[in-house]
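Hello K.,

You asked for the raw outputs rather than the summary table, so here they are, unedited. I folded two proteins back to back in the same session to keep the settings identical. This is the first:
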Amino acid sequence: MWRRIRSPILFPAASKKLELLKFSLLLLFIQCFLFVLFVAFGAYSLRADASSPGNSITPVFGGFNHARFNIVARFQPMFQDIHVMVFIGFGFLMVFLKRYGYSSLGFNYLLAALSLQWSILCQGFFELNDDYKIEIGMTSLYRADIATATVLISMGAVLGRVSHIQLIVMSILEIAAYSVNYVLNEKYFKAVDVGGSILVHTFGAYFGLSVSYILGRQQKCLYVDFDLSVNLHKPTYTSNILAMIGTLFLWVYWPSFNSIDLENDRAHRAVINTYLALAASCVIAFAASQLSSKEHTFNMVHVQNSTLAGGVAIGACAHLMVQPFGALLIGMIAGFLSVYGYNTVSFFLKRRLAIEDTCGVHNLHGIPGAFGGITAILLAYIATEQQYGKTLYQVYQARASPEISPNTEYIVLETGDGRTASQQAGYQTLLLVVTILMATVSGLISGFIVSLRWWGDASPETFYEDSVFWELPSEQQDVQDHPPPTWKLKEKLYNNSNVNMSVVCM
C-alpha cells in the first residue's frame, strides 16, 4: 500500500502554520545577527561622526570644508534615485504575474531591506579601518543599494517557484559571492564597469539562472505531469499595466544608477550616454517586437523589459568617449538583442537546459550585460591620450604610471600600474569571464543549499500563488475559483514497509 510522506515540500498546506512560524523565527534570528554585527563593526564615517575634529573645527585648522565637499548634497539626489529603482522599479516590474502581485512587491521589499544591511557588512569587511570598524557613509549606502539590485535581478529568475525562506537564503549567499567578485575587481583586475553591466547585471542574471537550474531539476525529480493549464504564470491586462510602472521608474532614473560613482566630465558623459542609449533601445525594442510578431503587434513583455536594455549595456562604458552616436548604437543593438532573447534564447534555455526564467532576466540583464562588457573591452583597447587627454588616467587608473606625481599642468593624478591599452583590455576580458564563472558556480552551490528540504521549498500547487503566503481580501478569494494545478508524484512501491518512497530524476 502507498505510504504518505510527511513533508512540507509535498504537502505544504498541512504544515503551512509551521512553515510560516519557521520563517518568522528565521527572520528574527537574521535581523538580530545583523544587529550584533553592526554593534561589533559598524561606525559612522568621519564626515558623519560628531566626535570627529573635522566636524567641529574650521577648515583653516584642518577641519572639513563642508561648503566645498558637501557629500550629502552631492550624493543624496542620485542615491534617492537608485533607492526608488530598487524598491519601486524592480518591485513593480515583477507584478505581471496574475496572482503573485503581493509576493512580487512584498518579497522585493523584504529582500531589499535585508540585503542592503548585509551588503554594507559584506563589502565593509574588506575595508576595515585601523580599529577594525566598518565606516558607514553615503558611499556605503548607495553601493549597498547597487549590490541589492543584483539580488533582485536573480529573484526574477526564480520568482513564483520558490518559498519565501528560500529567497532569503539565496539573497544572503549571493551578496557574499557578489562582494568577493566586486573586491577582486577593485583590488586586482581594476577593470572599468561604473554602471555594473558586468558586476551587477551579468552576475545577477547568471547567478539566478544557475539557482533556477538546480531548483528546476529537483522539482522535476519530485513532480511530473505538472499542468499549468490555469496559466498562473501568465499576466493579465491589469497586471501588465502595473508592471509598466516599474519599467518607467527604472527608465527615468537609470542615468543616476550609471553615474553616481563618478565626478566631473565623467559623470556628465555617463548621464548623456545612458540617456541616449535608453532612448535608442526603447525605439528599437518597439520596432523589433512588432517585426517579430506574426500579427505585427507589440508584445508587452518586450516593452516592459527590452526598452531598458540600453541602460544595462551602456553601464560598463557609460563614462567613456563612445560619442553620442556610439551611445545610440549601443542602445539599438542592446534593444534588438533583448527582443531576440525573449523570442529565441528563452525557449532554448527552457527546452534544452530545463532552465525556467520567470521574468526573463537573461534577456534584460544577462545578454545586454555581457554585450556591454564586450563593448568595454573594445573601447579599452582603442583608448588613447589623444581622446581623453590626461583624464585617461582617471578613467583607467591602472594605466597611470607607478611613478607619476601630482602636477599643476593638468590634474592631480594617482599612481597606477603602468598598463598598456591591450593589457587593460585583457583585464576587462578577465573580469567578464571571471564574473560569469563566479556567478554560475556560486549560483549552482547556492541552488543546492537552497534546495535542501529543511527550507521547505514550494510545490507546484503553490507556484505563482499569493494565497499561500498572504492574507487576501475576500473578493480576491472569490475570484480564485480555478482548481489547483494537477501534479503527480513519482513513486515506486517497495515490498519493504520501512521504505516510503524513492524519488528518481529523469
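The second followed immediately with the same parameters:
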Amino acid sequence: MISLTAALPISSLFPFLYFMIRDLNVAKRTEDIGFYAGFVGASFMLGRCLTSTAWGIMADRIGRKPVVVFGIFSVVVFNTLFGLSVSYWMAIATRFLLGALNGLLGPIKAYAIEVCRPEHEALALSLVSTAWGIGLIIGPALGGYLAMPAENFPNVFSPDSLFGRFPYFLPCLCTSAFAAAVLISCIWMPETLHKHKGSENENQSIEGLEAHLIDPEEKVEESGSLNTKKSLFKNWPLMSSIIIYCIFSFHDMAYTEVFSLWAESDKKYGGLSLSSEDVGQVLAVTGASLLVYQLFLYPRINKILGPINSSKIAAILCIPILFAYPYMTYLSEPGLSIILNIASVIKNNLAVTIITGTFILQNNAVPQDQRGAANGLSMTGMSFFKAVAPAGAGIVFSWAQKRQHGFFFPGDQMVFFLLNVIELLGFILTFKPFLAVLEQYNRN
C-alpha cells in the first residue's frame, strides 16, 4: 500500500498535464506546451534524485517507520497543493517538493527484506515492484478519467464548484485521500531497524552512518562471525547492481514513453493509430498480469534460477519482442489487439523480473544498517536516469518519424533498435567480471 502511495502521484498527471499547462497560460504558442510540460514532469524526478540518498541514510539512523510516515504525509500535502496550482511555478514547486520529501521507495524496499524470512525475500520485493507497477498504470487512468470533471460530468459537477474552478484537483484529491488512509494505517506498522546494543562498534556504525559513504572499511563482530562493512561506493557488488538497475530503469522509462507515442501515432508514420482509450486498455491488461505474475510465478522462477540467471534470461527475451513491435503495423483487428496485448504483457513482466532481481542483489550486498542508504543511493541514480529517459526518447522518436524512408532501420524501427541496444548493454553487464556477486549467488 505504501509503494502504491508513492507510485500514484508520479504518473497520474500525465493524461491532463498538456491541458493544465494550456490553462495556466504560460505557453505563448500551442507548440510550446510540450516544452513547459517537460519541466513539470522532470521536477519530481529531480527532487527525488537530490534527496533519495539522504532519506536512505535517515532511515538507517532513526528507523524505517518515521521516514515512511513523513513521506506519506508529504504526498497528502503537496499532491493536494499541486491539484490546486494557480500558476506554472506553483506547479513546478509543488512537484519538486513532492519528489524531494517523498523518500518512500528506498526505505520500503529495505523494510520488505527485513519484515520476512530469507526464503520469502523474492516474494516481498516482487510485491513492492508489483504495487509500484500497478500504481504507474492506475495513476494515468485516474488522472485521465477524473480531470476536468465539470466538462466531463456536467450533471454532477457545476462549473462554479470547487472542481469547476480547479479542474485538475479531483484526481489529486483522490490520490491524497488514499495516501491519508495509508498514513493512518501506519499506526500498526512495526519498526524493523534493529539497533544492537551489545557491541560498541555497532553503535558507532549506526551513529556515524554517513561515514559509510566515505570511510574505507569498518569491521564488526556480529553473531560470532566477521562482517566487513565497506564504503557504499567501494562495495562493488552493490555498485555494479545499482549501475545495472539504472540502465534497465532508463530502458523501461524510455520504452514507456515510446510505447504510448508509437501506439497513438498515425499508421503512415509507422504507428498503430490507436486511441488513448485503446492504449489504456492495453496497460490495464498488463497491470493485471503483473499482479498475477509477481504473486504466483516470479517467486518460483527466482527459487529455481536465482535473481541473476532470471534477469539474464528476461533481458535476452526482451530483444526479439522489441524487434517485432514495428511489424505490428501490418496487422489488422482483432489480431492487432491480441498480439499487442500479448507482447505488452510479456515485455513488462520480463522488465519486472529484471528490476526485482536487481532489488534482491542490492539489498543483500550490504548489512542491515546500510540498507536504507544503499537503497537511497540506487534511487538517486535511478531518478536521474528516469528524468533523462523521457526527454531523450521523445527527441529520438520525433527524429525517427521524419526518416520514414531511411536506409538503416527506417522510421520507428530505429527507435526500437536503439531500445534493444540499451537492453543488450544491460544484458552484457549482468556477467562477470562487471557484476560482482556474493557467495550465495556464485552458482548463478
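The two ends are 32 Å apart (CA to CA).

Happy to rerun anything if the numbers look odd on your end.

Regards,
P.
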